[in-house]
Specification:
Largest interface: A-B, 94 and 93 residues
Distance between the termini of chain A: 43 Å
Shape of chain A: elongated
Order of helices and strands of chain A: EHEHEHEHHEHEEHEHHEHHHHHH
Oligomer: homotetramer
Radius of gyration of chain A: 24 Å
Strand order of the largest sheet of chain A: 3-2-1-4-5-6
Number of helices of chain A: 15
């Protein structure tokens, strides 16, 4: 397959979309833009972009169209219907979806494009508006390998790096959700830690140091490896002792009147592990309860 | 106050206690040891330690007694009663408690010693048995500053570093619990992330990389600062968009049949924040819900 | 408005739909049926029903069409498109939706019908297949009052009773979800109670008696009234004492190794209430925490 | 054993203790009372009770002593020490403990009395102050059967009914905790239901009716029986359909911004059940997840 990806359609000039579109234009691609609120297009038009009146128009004549939208619903609405992308894309053209959408929606989009003779490339963005402006995003991409190779210059125009993850478009959206899950869980963890510490009389500056120390501690590499290998014996710290510590946290949280909802949830995991006879395994063996409750062996 | 801390009592030769006692003996201190199971004392006795038949005997004639026990109850039992530490300690002598105990229990011990004319130093250990053997523990200490200064050589004999945290013995136990809370929450977070990722078709090796990438990402320093400063405007990522992402995680967790209990708990925080009109703040403003629920302003 | 509701379309012959359709046919209405798996129609056709090849055909010529489907998606698919209900319904005709769908989906359907010149009546079913067969269902209905009055005989043909709840179709779906929420929460509560009791050495027969005793105890009427009136002073049982009891439950659950996830969640509510200075209010004042977290005054 | 229980000691004249002591005095027993705040004793003394200066004095010469205290700690403090009950009770005398204490504390008390030659009877109270005043409490009692028979007149003097539950004192405290767990879970359930309903536009009066209707619905007897028999096939309502409903509740709770923490917890149970292949069982089979997580077969 020999594709020359030069004419780009672009839909969605929000906080992420605008700087990306600009970088693409700056890199010398021909750019056709559509945005629901037209005023956001003006500076790009002044800089040489072509105005499109609908997603369909942005797709017409383009080698690839990038969508940078909000969610499943807006992605589907932009793709389907008389004014949608599918109606405009020529056979063999490409739709690159950058939004954080559900893995199932990504699969649906891939199927729609397959039936249409076009290609869907899942390419959710890792990074925030400032990284987008600086061209320092990270992108995991999934879809047809040749198609993705053909888009190399395009990806390089707006994403600092892009990594190919196979042809299943669900995977990269699952990766994105896993990453956001880790991130938001950390934020909530910080919230609980700061709150408990403050009510225990610890200065926030010290708590921040404590958090950063734990996050960068080499023991975390060790724990992630133990979990990956499901290697819980011999114990570095026994589950029965870990349970005692969790009960101490909860008792202290009662004493200072600061809810610790993660500790409560974790307590249940420890009890479940103890009920199954895992007292002498490493405390990280609470992972086995998560696995069992997900039907994993 | 001029104290020469040379004669040390030691109670509790478990996985942590044994290597610590050995390091103290090796550093040239005179060591009087007691352990409930006497056989664990034998190699220390061969190396020059003196056998004590009770915590009281370990305390008699000692400048300082270190306890390295399991929990609140064993700590109190070892301290009180006819054969307890208090019955043996001379006026002005010191009890250094290294166990992870409740802040309230630490306060009780400090009060008991005050009434007894002796000193309590709270000094919970940060590190595991291998760090103890290598003398690379970290110790946060609280209690009378002069007393702690007098113990400098002793701390250096068994702990790589020790940091003075003021005179309130509760604080260092609260710090220890905060740190363990962060650590165990991370283990549970890894458990959920691995489980969700595996059921989504992501290889564990990749998930581990993803976890380590997030943990070392500079954005975490930024988030811990935002929380510390309670600085949620302007948003880097809006709370309303964060809520959408959490709902996507939960939807995906339903689709792959993998419970994500932290995401469920976090969802409630987002809803509560949205119900209070915080949609346009940074998503890290869910911290405010933790604060409100702990009665903080 | 004078409507004679006699010709009925029916879509969805599942466990609930089949006995309802049969009761309607038995009551003398003219019945046009459609089901995705045609074999389920046969006995109704033998009994005089007319076969429809699509939802549209079931709607054509009908005064009212009843849908008895699975979820939002099937309800929308059955309504929209070339073969959907809307394409077949004549102006002024009625769509009665009996499925448990989201309140938002009900609002969407009402809007679609309004634009189409037809009427949507939300009428989720309360009861299970045996109640449907016996004509003893309960139906809360919402929509245009005159339209609903005109359907009186139809409702009586398949539902033991029906109660008019105003013209907002969302409300009755919210009621249905509230009711199911209460029911499923009770089932989970029973699960936890049986598990904790069994591990504490209590016979299941006795636990069942205990559960039924509490459920029928007059104090529950009192508590639901206190909550409704937000009347928490003077306390019948103080919040601080309730907190103590919840901690006892959790301690006992630790001792017998039986997770009590509701008690953990409730503990956080008590802590939050205590943190806000509510120690001396009645323990049912934990309701105020739910209200605050939902942005209610 | 022939015991004539006529001289009664009483410790703890709080909201529950005072009316109970009064009923015992009114029934003609000789009453020796002790309370930490002496002023609460005055009206009982005027009515013929004898003042005791300590728990020990209340016990001296008494056939049985009733304690009506706050928690584990006060119960143990009142029992032990130079001025405690044990120091005053003659051989063969009885301690009746009415507080809600931990099952483990009840076992400890029974052991202490056994070693002392006295008897411990666990007799936690079911009912509130108004029921105590009216002599309409319910008491589950555990301990030596002959001892309890000998106390028949005493129990009848202050408790409307008392039921013998065997000789293990832990059981009746576990029963009490189970019952309080059910009750407080119902209060929290009402809280969430009222909150969700109010934000969905449903009147509180209607919500109360809905709650009471569900609580008295015969289907609950059926569900408690299903759980007790672990009888989940055939399904009355399939687990996969139940899961759909729980997701609808959560979606609606998002839409109206009202956290539904029980629904979130229940969602995890449904996912876990689906992950284990239970989609077609009755939805009440989520009980099996609670059993598995408690190590039950």
């Amino acid at each position: 397959m020999e594709m020359n990806i030069q004419k780009i359609g672009f839909v969605g000039l929000g906080k992420m979309g605008y700087p990306i579109a600009k970088n693409i234009l700056n890199a010398g691609f021909e750019l056709r833009v559509y945005n629901r609120s037209p005023e956001k297009m003006s500076s790009l038009l002044s800089a040489g972009a072509i105005e499109a009146a609908s997603p369909r128009e942005a797709a017409e004549g383009s080698d690839a169209v990038i969508t940078c939208l909000m969610d499943d619903q807006t992605e589907l609405e932009c793709t389907l219907g008389a004014d949608g992308l599918l109606a405009g894309l020529t056979s063999g053209a490409i739709h690159i979806g950058t939004a954080t959408i559900s893995p199932n929606c990504a699969a649906t989009l891939a199927e729609l494009h397959k039936n249409n003779g076009s290609h869907y490339v899942a390419a959710p963005l890792f990074g925030r508006p400032d990284a987008a402006a600086a061209g320092k995003l990270l992108t995991y991409v999934a879809g047809d390998e040749d198609v993705i190779k053909a888009c190399k210059n395009l990806f390089e125009a707006y994403s600092g790096s892009h990594i190919y993850m196979g042809d299943n478009p669900k995977i990269v959206n699952s990766i994105k959700l896993t990453m956001n899950f880790i991130l938001v869980s950390l934020i909530e963890l910080f919230s609980q830690a700061y709150t408990f510490a403050e009510k225990s009389g610890i200065e926030p500056e010290f708590t921040q140091e404590l958090i950063m120390t734990v996050l960068h501690h080499p023991v975390l590499k060790e724990y992630t490896t133990r979990l990956r290998m499901q290697d819980f014996e011999p114990a570095a710290f026994e589950l029965i002792a870990g349970h005692k510590d969790v009960e101490l946290m909860l008792q202290a949280s009662s004493d200072v009147r600061a809810p610790l909802i993660f500790a409560s949830a974790i307590r249940e995991k420890f009890l479940s592990a103890l009920a199954r006879g895992m007292a002498e395994k490493d405390w990280s063996a609470i992972y086995e309860i998560s696995r069992l409750n997900a039907g994993l062996p």
